[in-house]
Amino acid sequence: MHKPNKLLRITISAVTVVYSVLLFNLDLHLDSFGKRVVAALPMIGTIALWLWDSFIWKLPIIQSLTKRPNIKGLWEVTLTPHEDSHIPPGGNRGPIKAYMEIDQSYWQVDVTLFTKESHSDLVSFFLGFT
Description:
The protein is of the alpha+beta class. About 40% of the residues lie in helices and about 25% in strands. Helix 1 (about 5-25) runs antiparallel to helix 2. It is elongated, with a radius of gyration of 22 Å. The mean pLDDT is about 80.
């Protein structure tokens, strides 16, 4: 499954870096250190958000503060269809052994479910854990 968030992150990061470099290097009379820092703020913010989303939130001390569990990995699961499920005659009525692959960042969870018969993908943005 195509995950548009990676392309979006790369595009936003590239545009932000180019914008900051142009502001920093063009002859815009950025003669003070403060003005140069202001020109670099978009790039600094983008890098900080990328570091947070990819690495920082996974640190144990940070996880205890955010209450966001890291569930990334490969999980073995058992599916049991409901008795009212619309399963065709001769279909597998369970229990069905399956594997669930979870890829996670701070703001997104990608889940892929694999069974002997098929696989499916789910992408969920902006999860709130309580």
